[in-house]
TrEMBL record:
Protein name: Secondary thiamine-phosphate synthase enzyme
Transmembrane segments: none
Source organism: Natrinema salaciae
Family annotation (Pfam families): YjbQ
Family: Belongs to the UPF0047 family.
């Protein structure tokens, strides 16, 4: 199963928890669910979906990786996006228990857009115990 996400700015986060949860088959009682973003300039992370923390995450990535001055910029001026996405990683794996994502109280799955605005594809696979 796959879904798309429309992003609105260059560096942003989008809560995709409900869309990942919707991909869990009704007959899967326990197992794992893996979501994978099919792009090299976006990533996925499990984190708290709180606006200030999401802003902090964006600021952290912006501060950690400068916007310019990278060799790849000679090609298409988005090396910073690739480097930020490499830090985040392209996937998350979440346990499934009692037919639902077994996330902690404050945990959500966030898509981290590093080169938007764009349309991103996230594929979801599940495996039963």
């Amino acid at each position: 199963m796959a879904f798309t996400v429309e992003t609105e700015s260059r560096l942003t986060t989008v809560d995709v928890t409900d869309r990942i949860a919707a991909a869990v088959p009704e007959d899967l009682e326990s197992g794992t669910c893996t979501a994978f973003v099919e792009h090299t300039t976006a990533g996925l992370v499990v984190q708290e979906n709180e606006p200030r923390l999401r802003g902090d995450l964006e600021s952290f990535l912006r501060d950690l990786v400068p916007d310019e001055g990278h060799a790849h910029d000679q090609l298409d001026r988005n090396a910073d996006s690739h480097l930020r996405a490499a830090l985040v990683g392209p996937d998350v794996t979440i346990p499934v228990a009692d037919g639902e994502l077994a996330l902690g109280t404050w945990q959500s799955a966030l898509l981290v857009e590093c080169d938007g605005p764009r349309t991103r594809t996230v594929s979801v696979t599940t495996v039963g115990d």
